[in-house]
Design a protein that fits this description.
By secondary structure, the chain is mainly alpha-helical. The protein is built from eight helices and two strands, in the order αβααβααααα. The longest helix has 51 residues. The relative contact order is 0.05.
Length: 186
């Protein structure tokens, strides 16, 4: 048996692949063994005595199928988990997502003039202090604060109106008193 090590190496170089991908025709060993240059190897390749083997198929079909099942929640029980809950989905990532959602909502409501800057600031600081676990709770709090503020405003207006009425009453009384006091002197 003739050694075709040189021919295999040259063929790998000419065909730009690894030596394991080179197929030398076992029936034409003598002719291949005479080829000692790259040009001769290229000629043998054209003649079909030296062939570059096709790449081995590494199918991802099973992987894709499994990933699709995982998206549905299969294969993710206790037995399939290696890392801690924090390693699998960090608490920090959850925190960042939630905070961004809350801050985006606050900013949108402030820009739309639904809340004033004072409510915005107090709610911003509360959300920073982990007061709201989700958007729904924050929206409820906003509604509560707005109704509270409206009530306070209404009460303040009533008090102001009462004061105005009282002042007017006092003025009328004083003018009446003044008239009564002026009357007997004339």
């Amino acid at each position: 048996m003739v050694s075709l090590k040189l021919q295999k190496r040259l063929a790998a170089s000419v065909l730009k692949c690894g030596e394991r991908k080179i197929w030398l025709d076992p029936n034409e060993v003598n002719e291949i063994s005479l080829a000692n240059s790259r040009r001769n190897i290229a000629r043998l390749h054209r003649d079909g005595l030296i062939i570059k083997k096709p790449t081995v198929v590494h199918s991802r079909a099973r992987v894709l199928l499994r990933n699709e099942a995982k998206r549905k929640g299969r294969h993710t029980g206790h037995g399939k988990r290696k890392g801690t809950a924090n390693a699998r989905l960090p608490f920090k990532v959850l925190w960042m997502r939630r905070t961004r959602v809350l801050r985006r909502l606050l900013k949108k409501m402030r820009d739309a003039k639904k809340i004033d800057k004072h409510i915005y600031h107090s709610l911003y600081m509360l959300s920073k202090g982990n007061q709201f676990k989700n958007k729904r709770v924050l929206v409820e709090t906003i509604h509560e604060m707005k109704t509270q503020k409206a009530k306070e405003k209404a009460i303040a207006e009533q008090i102001e109106a009462r004061k105005v009425r009282a002042r007017a009453r006092n003025e009328r009384k004083s003018t009446k008193k003044d008239k009564l006091q002026e009357g007997p002197t004339n």
